C-alpha cells in the first residue's frame, strides 16, 4: 500500500519507457520516488515496440547525425544527448547484462529479440521506487508557479517536491496513451502543438489502389506535394494495403505530412527511378520488337509481379492477352508515362489506434533542454512522447524517451 501522507522528492506521472528511466535516475540519486501508472502494469506500450522485439535505439556516427532524424526540431536533443545519448544507453543496458544486437541497418535490439527482456531489466532497477497502479491524475494544483500537490480521480491528494510528466501521447490509446497528459500540461499553462498521428500509414483516395493490396513495390521514388509544392522526396519500398500505402519511407513521410494535412496533398510514384522516361521507352520498344509473338503480359514479367502488371495494363487499357505486335505505339507510350509517374491523391493519415508515435505535444519553447524542466512551472519536468518531438522509424523515438527520461530524473 502507498502511504498517501508521505511527501516524495519526485512523483512521476506515467510508467512507460521515459517514466521508468526517470524513476531509475531519481532513485539512484537517493530520491524518494513515486510512479503513478494508469495501467495495472508498467511498460505496456514498450512491449509492442519493434513488433515485440523492442527496437530500443539506432547506431549513428554521432549525436548530430542522430538528431537529424527528428527533423527541424531535432537540435533540441543535442544538449540531452550530450548527457545521455545512444552510447550511454547501450552501456546502461549492457551493464545490466542485457545483451544487445546492432543490425546491418543500424537498428538496435536485445539479442533475445524479446521486448519483455528490456522491461524485465528496467523493472529490476526500480527497487526502492513506490508504484501506484490503476490510478489517473485528475488535477494539478499550482500556486505561484509551483505545483503544490496533485489530485487523483479518487480525490486522494499526493505531494512532492518535484513532478515529471511522462504520460505519453495519443498513439496506441489502448495502452493508456490517450492524450490525458496533454490536458494536464495545458491545465498548468503549457502550449500543446496539435497532436496528429505519426509514423503511420496513409490512406489514398483512388479506389483502384485496393486492387493492389499486398503488393510491394521495391526501390521506387516517391514525391509528395502540398498545394503543388514539393515537400518530400524519398526512395525505398512501399506496400499497398486495402486503404492505401505503407512501408518505412511512408511511415517517415507521415511525420512531415502531419504538418500539411489542411492542404491538398498529392503523390507521385516513379517505378523506375534509375531510368528517364525516354530511355525506358526505348528499352520497352526493344523488348517488344524481340518478342513480337508473345503475349504482352508475358513480356513484362521481367519488370513486374503478375498482380501489379495486370493492374498497370488494366489502368492503361491494354489487353493483357494481346500479342506484342498487336499493341499500338500510343498504348506503350501511355504505359511508360504511367509507370514513371503514378499519381495518387492523399486522403488522410491513418488513426492514432495504429500510429507508432504522436506528432505534436508540449511545445519545446516552454521546456529547458538542459534539464527537461518547464519554463512555466518551476518544479515540473517533461520526458518522452508527451513533448513535441518525433523521429523516424528505427529506434529513434525510444532513444528520445530513454534520453529525456534520464535527464529529467537526474535533474528533479
What is this structure's SSE topology?
Elements: E1 7-13, H1 17-27, E2 33-37, E3 57-58, H2 63-67, H3 78-83, H4 86-95, E4 100-102, E5 107-110, H5 115-124, E6 130-133, E7 137-143, E8 146-152, E9 157-165, H6 180-187, E10 192-198, E11 202-204, E12 216-226, E13 229-240, E14 244-246, H7 248-257, E15 265-270, H8 277-290, H9 296-299, H10 306-315, H11 329-340, E16 342-349, E17 357-362, E18 367-368, E19 373-374, E20 380-382, H12 396-409
Parallel strand pairs: 1-2, 1-9, 2-6, 9-20
Antiparallel strand pairs: 3-5, 4-5, 7-8, 8-9, 10-17, 11-14, 11-16, 12-13, 12-15, 13-14, 15-16, 18-19
Structural summary, described in words:
The chain is of the alpha+beta class and 412 residues long. The protein folds into two domains: 7-197 and 355-409, FAD/NAD(P)-binding domain (3-Layer(bba) Sandwich), CATH 3.50.50; 201-350, Helicase, Ruva Protein, domain 3 (Orthogonal Bundle). The chain contains twelve helices and 20 strands. It has helices at residues 17-27, 63-67, 78-83, 86-95, 115-124, 180-187, 248-257, 277-290, 296-299, 306-315, 329-340, 396-409, and strands spanning 7-13, 33-37, 57-58, 100-102, 107-110, 130-133, 137-143, 146-152, 157-165, 192-198, 202-204, 216-226, 229-240, 244-246, 265-270, 342-349, 357-362, 367-368, 373-374, 380-382. Strands 1, 2, 6, 7, 8, 9 and 20 form a seven-stranded mixed β-sheet that branches. Strands 11-14-13-12-15-16 form a six-stranded antiparallel β-barrel. Strands 3-5-4 form a three-stranded antiparallel β-sheet. The longest helix has 14 residues, at 277-290. The radius of gyration is 25 Å and the shape is elongated. The mean pLDDT is 94.
Amino acid at each position: 500500500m502507498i502511504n498517501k501522507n508521505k511527501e516524495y522528492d519526485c512523483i512521476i506521472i506515467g510508467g512507460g519507457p521515459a517514466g521508468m528511466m526517470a524513476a531509475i535516475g531519481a532513485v539512484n540519486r537517493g530520491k524518494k520516488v513515486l510512479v503513478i501508472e494508469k495501467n495495472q502494469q508498467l511498460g505496456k506500450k514498450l512491449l509492442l515496440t519493434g513488433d515485440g522485439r523492442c527496437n530500443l535505439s539506432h547506431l549513428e556516427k554521432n549525436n548530430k547525425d542522430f538528431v537529424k532524424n527528428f527533423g527541424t526540431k531535432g537540435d533540441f536533443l543535442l544538449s540531452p544527448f550530450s548527457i545521455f545519448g545512444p552510447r550511454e544507453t547501450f552501456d546502461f543496458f549492457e551493464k545490466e547484462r542485457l545483451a544487445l544486437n546492432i543490425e546491418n541497418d543500424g537498428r538496435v535490439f536485445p539479442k533475445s529479440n524479446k521486448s519483455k527482456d528490456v522491461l524485465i531489466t528496467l523493472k529490476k532497477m526500480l527497487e526502492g521506487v513506490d508504484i501506484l497502479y490503476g490510478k489517473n491524475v485528475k488535477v494539478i494544483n499550482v500556486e505561484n508557479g509551483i505545483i503544490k500537490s496533485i489530485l487523483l480521480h479518487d480525490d486522494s491528494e499526493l505531494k512532492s517536491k518535484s513532478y515529471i510528466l511522462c504520460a505519453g501521447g495519443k498513439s496506441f490509446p489502448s495502452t493508456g496513451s490517450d492524450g490525458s497528459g496533454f490536458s494536464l500540461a495545458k491545465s498548468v499553462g503549457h502550449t500543446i502543438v496539435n497532436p496528429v498521428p505519426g509514423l503511420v500509414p496513409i490512406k489514398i483516395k483512388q479506389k483502384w489502389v485496393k486492387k493492389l493490396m499486398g503488393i510491394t513495390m521495391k526501390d521506387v521514388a516517391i514525391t509528395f506535394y502540398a498545394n503543388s509544392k514539393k515537400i518530400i522526396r524519398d526512395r525505398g519500398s512501399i506496400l499497398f494495403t486495402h486503404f492505401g500505402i505503407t512501408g518505412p519511407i511512408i511511415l517517415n513521410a507521415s511525420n512531415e505530412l502531419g504538418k500539411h494535412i489542411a492542404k491538398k496533398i498529392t503523390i507521385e510514384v516513379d517505378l523506375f527511378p534509375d531510368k528517364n522516361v525516354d530511355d525506358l521507352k526505348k528499352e520497352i520498344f526493344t523488348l517488344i520488337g524481340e518478342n513480337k509473338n508473345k503475349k504482352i503480359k508475358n513480356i513484362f514479367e521481367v519488370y513486374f509481379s503478375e498482380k501489379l502488371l495486370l493492374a498497370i495494363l488494366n489502368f492503361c487499357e491494354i489487353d493483357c492477352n494481346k500479342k506484342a505486335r498487336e499493341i499500338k505505339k500510343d498504348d506503350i507510350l501511355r504505359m511508360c508515362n504511367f509507370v514513371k509517374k503514378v499519381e495518387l491523391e492523399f486522403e488522410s493519415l491513418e488513426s492514432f489506434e495504429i500510429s507508432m508515435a504522436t506528432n505534436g505535444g508540449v511545445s519545446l519553447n516552454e521546456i529547458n533542454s538542459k534539464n527537461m524542466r518547464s519554463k512555466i512551472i518551476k518544479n515540473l519536468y517533461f520526458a518522452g512522447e508527451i513533448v513535441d518531438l518525433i523521429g523516424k522509424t528505427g529506434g529513434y523515438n525510444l532513444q528520445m524517451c530513454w534520453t529525456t527520461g534520464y535527464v529529467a530524473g537526474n535533474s528533479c
